[in-house]
Amino acid sequence: MNRQGALVHWILLGMFAALAVFFIAARAGVQAPAIKGEWALQFLNENYLEAQKEQLQMEIRVRNAGIEIARELAGQGGFESASTCGAVDDVSLWNKEERWCWPDLAGAVNAKAQEKLLPFIQFGNKGTIFFGKGREKTIKSPTGKYTYDTSFSLDLGYSFDEYLLLEETARHLVDTCRNTKNLIVCLEETKKKEWEYGKCGSLEQYPANSRLLAFCIQSVYDLPFGEEYIRSFQAVHYQIALDFANTLPFEVDNLGVQSFPDFYEITFDADPAAEKYRIYYTNWGEAVNNAPGSPPEIFSTVPSNELLGFYGKIELEQPTECAFQKEAGKAYLCEGKIVYRVQDSRITPDREFWFAATTLSQNKESLLVRFVSVLPTPNGIGS
Question: Average pLDDT for residues 16-30, to the nearest whole number?
Fold first, then answer.
């Protein structure tokens, strides 16, 4: 056999040997080695990606629940249940006379979230971030198991901290207007345009002869609204009520002053609820700038040295019947008006003076709302 024939012989023998080994191994169940990276890919598909899907579904559920909670609490004035101050036409009151009933917002959010988002166990917010504490969850598959934390933290696009601003605004509105006789004028001058009268969705205007008022307040935040929360964005609206019952007697109306050579005649509308009246006068212009306010606050800046400035105070008892000849230092009731003539040697014609009046009832004094200025001249009229 030549060398070329021997080579062919050995190649054929090697091929038959390889085939024999393959068939023997196949019958014995020996598997070929796995492709590199195949296990990792299966683990990602069967464990990690499944966990990501569940977390995405959970995030959608949490976001929808957070939006529901924000809108529901806004419609209830921030209360989970009824306000301890009561309600006006089913709208929760935030105050009753001088008592304030602020909603426990953290407790209300947590309670509503517990109802909507079981099995999470604790909830809170910081700014627009809504978060909750969950438990660990494990996903098992033939390739292994994957454990992850179900706790969440997402940007809701809305902050429950807006209630703090509403509470501050509500307190300012009540403190400013509750003791003014003409409530509607005070409210229109003080309240923000986002605060509308009545229930949300109604066309109600200011209710006459009532000092218990409901307000619908537009939020600065817009949230998804409609089925599945994907149709449109609409502003959140808060529904609250406030009690503007006066805690002090009402201020005097239609104050006027007329100067004469020997006295200054003060007139203002009589108040049937008033037990007494007080008249104030001063040459200290800085005090005038402090109105409206309580008399002690307004006159707190008057100097102790009367050469620099002073103020006087006269308390009027119940007025007598009107008379043609009126005496200084005596109050008269003339056609529904109180008339009083002030004499004080300190009121001189070389300086401008300011006059004001208040009412008293049950040992309480009304606010001093406005002054009338007079420069004493014969037959001069206050302006």
Answer: 46
